Amino acid sequence: MSAPLPGRTLADLDGDVLAHCAGHLCARDVASLAMTCRPLHAAAYCDAVWYRLYRSPLSFSFLSLGDLVYSIIRQRLPRAIFTNRVGEEAELTEFSGPKFTCEWEQWPFQQVPRGALGIRELYIRRHTVVHQMKFNDPLSSIYYLDPTESAPSHLMLDRNDVWFSQGPVAKRLSLGWLNMELMETYKSHSARITCMSDTHTNEKALVTSSTDRTVRLCWKGQSRCYKGHSGPVTALADKLLGDGEFKVLATGSEDCTIRLWSVSTRAKKHPLISTLHGHEKTLSLLSVAWHKPSLLVSISKDTKVKVWDTMAPPSSVSSSCVGGTHLNSSGPPVAIKCYQSLCYIAAGSEVTAIDLRTMKKASVLALRNQRILSCEMLPSEWLICTGIKDKVLLWDIRKSQELANTVAELHSDGPVALLHLDPYKVVTGAPWDGQVHVWETRTGHLVNTLSCNNPVKSAGRSTLSAMAVDGCRIITTGSSTEGSLLHYQDFLRSSVPVASSGKEVSKFWGPQEYDDEDSDDDH
């Protein structure tokens, strides 16, 4: 009997083979590949891999590695036959749903020699400036709203969909190449919508709460109603509780209770799981613990914080509360964010970090009598951004006890009520400004100012009521003399950089280089 063949791994493959395989992955998968071992790191950092990423018009951002095979077949064969998961033959005619969704990227054409060094650096630089919105020519689309309807108060940007609310109505727009089309209108509530959230699951659904004391779950033209609160619903958890198939939605109300609802279709008739009592004032914010998805953190208007174990048996509701503390802040809660075992809460003039294991304050960031109007937190990057009456303060939370050592002060012409923070940029907006300002996260430098109105027809004073940012895309809504509108801008394919102060730049991105063969072909 012959001896079994020794085990083989990816690292045993030839370097050229690895580089060829890595060239079919998206940038995120290439980066993950580089962190596994030295041979795969060398293959992932090969210039040939980044040349394909740099020049390719396709980026499979939403494809799993297994589904990559299907996408390659679909590119090369107009009509591809494959075997589906139940063993039947089927024709692969289009990509739909989360498993077959491509993000089409087309960067401006720039001649790059095939043997050039530093293509990975060029890719990263381009990726960075695109996400920092450092361009003057984004793909822009305007959607005018009915002037008889109220201005949108909530706005969400999710892949190719835009969700927004107007009074008791929620609407979904589909983003096209140069336009936005109304796809769905949900008139389920009888009073103003107070909160809007995404379920963050494969089955994309919208969750809305209202002053009519109900919660609605909307998806694919369908709607489900959750009734039980005796007062207006004022808070939705930032994500679903639990892991696996059993998912729970948490809501808070003016009736001072938290209610847990099953979002499973099996619990359609009796979705209420339990009611949590313990708060004495209206619920303001709810957040699911980062380190344990069964823990729920709640804070009420009197800044009392409680932690609940939502997996406790329904008969022991009184024991569901596993911790609590009182912030004693000078103002109502503004924002909450859980990361690892900490919970960051902005209220009054302070941002407090609470250790959920001991319920003790880990740190306090005090603004000295400056009321916080908006707050965004990025704990993984050690950054907190606070908006006040005339500026935005960007903090490094490792220096939270040193007030003078802020990362940057970003000035504003009005109170900063709208704020976005990610590793690349800070986006700020004041209600009466009619513009949003984009700043570099690391330096605090202003890199762009975007109008919320139609740049061709804009005239007179305008306002800003909501905004949503997703990577290199932004959508804003506001009112002007023309009426209310939604303005969508996508910087992915932009090519005209914003001019630096006192400098002129070419309309082409970066220096242009040409191959000798291309020059010969022109003559």
Strand content: 35-45%
**Mean pLDDT reading:** 79
Number of strand segments? 36
Estimated radius of gyration: 26 Å
The poorly predicted ranges are 57-106, 502-523
Major sheet size, sense and barrel closure: 4 strands, antiparallel
Question: What helical percentage do the residues reach?
Answer: 10-25%
Structural class designation? mainly beta
The number of helices is 7
Terminal CA distance reads: 68 Å
Q: What is the spatial order of strands in the main beta sheet? A: 5-36-35-34
Question: Which shape, going by the Cα principal axes?
Answer: globular
Question: How is this fold's topology laid out?
Answer:
Blueprint: H1 15-22, H2 27-34, H3 38-44, H4 47-55, E1 58-59, H5 68-76, E2 80-83, E3 89-92, E4 103-104, H6 119-131, E5 139-144, E6 154-158, E7 161-166, E8 169-175, E9 180-186, E10 193-198, E11 206-210, E12 214-219, E13 222-227, E14 233-236, E15 248-253, E16 258-262, E17 272-276, E18 283-288, E19 295-300, E20 304-309, E21 321-326, E22 333-339, E23 342-347, E24 350-355, E25 360-366, E26 374-378, E27 383-387, E28 391-396, E29 408-411, E30 418-421, E31 425-429, E32 435-440, E33 446-451, E34 463-470, E35 473-480, E36 483-490, H7 516-522
Antiparallel strand pairs: 1-4, 2-3, 5-36, 6-7, 7-8, 8-9, 10-11, 11-12, 12-13, 14-15, 15-16, 16-17, 18-19, 19-20, 20-21, 22-23, 23-24, 24-25, 26-27, 27-28, 28-29, 30-31, 31-32, 32-33, 34-35, 35-36
Helix pairs in contact: 1-3, 2-3, 4-6
